[in-house]
Every structure is written in structure tokens, then in C-alpha cells.
Design goal:
CATH architecture: Alpha-Beta Barrel
Structural class: alpha/beta
CATH superfamily: Aldolase class I
Number of helices: 7
Number of strands: 7
CATH topology: TIM Barrel
Number of domains: 1
Largest sheet: 5 strands, parallel
Order of helices and strands: EEEHEHHHEHEHHE
Strand order of the largest sheet: 1-4-5-6-7
Shape: globular
Strand content: 5-15%
Length: 212
């Protein structure tokens, strides 16, 4: 994945949708807990079943294998999609993750899934291949991922050696990632307030979600 311009870099984003996979694609989706999507989305998305511990470990290794294939294919880096209500974000959310085992029950345990993904990827690609993450500043829903949990995740990801942190927000139930109904300038980088606060928490470069 090389271009004529050496300053142009191609990073692959890797993701697992969890329960946010429509019925016509996935008759029985999986999630941290068997919690259906709300806001009328149950018509298009089936109620998920809770993942077994062994399945969680298998998914972690799939993330790592995909990152290694990304490196072999010649991409310049890889991004873990941990936002927008997909599986990584589901594990982080108290609303969607109601487990009481090693993968849930406290903010630290809810972070375990994404941190283990990052560690597994590092084992596969080494320390010189860039690894980033896209995370929610907030889910913008009752009992969702937000506030101190988001700030603590930034610290934890930084300690684990992530190379970039992209700030976004929302999920299918509350699609804040589509932008605020404000001026064009504000919509171009509509999570700058949280990103600015995040700068005080880490030296890792931050990226904001927005348009062109």
C-alpha cells in the first residue's frame, strides 16, 4: 500500500460489529451480554447472545491475526475500531456489558477486552508498526460509556503504547458520530471539546472525527 507521495499513509481499520449486525447478515449476533438494541432497532437487529469466555479469547486472536495480515499486506498502520457501538465499545459500556466475570462488572474489567486486543496485536506486529484506536468520548445514552471511564481508558491505552487515539462518540441508538446540527466549521470537528481535555491526559497524538 505505497503511494507516489511518501507523506500519504494507508491505515486499515479493523472491527467486529457485535450486535450491530443486521438480521439479513447475522441471524444470531453476539455481544458481551444478551441486551437487545433499543430505539426501535430490534426490528432490524436480532437480540444477541452473550459471548462465552473462550469465544472472547478467540475474537481477540482474530483481531491480532488481522493486524498481522494488514502489516504483511503493506499497510502503514492499523486502527482498532472501539467506538460507535461496535463490539469493543459494547464491552466498554455499562449498559451493554452486564457481565460479572473477568470481562465486566467494573470499569477496569470492561476495559480488559480492548487492552487484551491491543496487547495481542503488539505481539504479532511488534513495536515499530503503528497501532491506533478509535474510541467514544461518550455513548450519549443512559448508563453508557462516558466521563471518567473514557478518561481512564485514554490513560490505560497510553500506558499500553498505542500510537494514536481518535475521538468520536455515539452508536446506532444515538448516532452522535454523524455530527452536530451546527455551523459548517463546528461540524468539521465536532468533538474538539473532549479532545482538548484528553490532551491533558496523554502525550499520545489525538485525532478528531469530522469531515473534510
Amino acid at each position: 500500500m505505497h503511494t507516489a507521495n511518501p507523506d500519504v499513509k494507508f491505515w486499515m481499520q479493523i472491527n467486529h460489529p457485535g450486535k450491530q449486525s443486521p438480521k439479513f447478515l447475522t441471524a444470531q449476533p453476539v455481544a458481551p451480554s444478551a441486551v437487545a438494541l433499543g430505539q426501535g432497532l430490534d426490528a432490524a437487529f436480532a437480540r444477541p447472545r452473550a459471548l462465552e469466555p473462550g469465544e472472547i479469547l478467540e475474537i481477540i486472536e482474530r483481531f491480532a491475526k488481522t493486524a498481522k495480515l494488514t502489516q504483511i499486506a503493506g499497510f502503514d498502520g492499523v486502527q482498532i475500531h472501539g467506538a460507535h457501538g461496535y463490539l469493543v465499545n459494547q464491552f466498554l459500556s455499562p449498559h451493554h456489558n452486564r457481565r460479572d466475570d473477568a470481562w465486566g462488572g467494573s470499569p477496569a474489567k470492561r476495559r480488559t477486552f480492548v487492552l487484551e486486543i491491543l496487547r495481542a496485536i503488539r505481539r504479532e506486529v511488534g513495536t515499530q508498526f503503528p497501532v491506533s484506536i478509535k474510541m467514544n468520548s461518550a455513548d450519549f445514552q443512559k448508563d453508557g460509556f462516558e466521563g471518567a471511564d473514557a478518561q481512564d481508558l485514554i490513560r490505560a491505552l497510553s500506558d499500553e503504547g498505542t500510537d494514536r487515539i481518535e475521538i468520536s462518540g455515539g452508536n446506532y441508538e444515538n448516532p452522535a458520530m454523524t455530527g452536530a446540527k451546527q455551523s459548517t466549521q463546528a461540524r468539521e470537528a465536532y468533538l474538539l471539546d473532549f479532545a482538548t481535555r484528553a490532551r491533558a491526559l496523554t502525550d499520545v497524538p489525538a485525532v478528531v472525527t469530522g469531515g473534510f
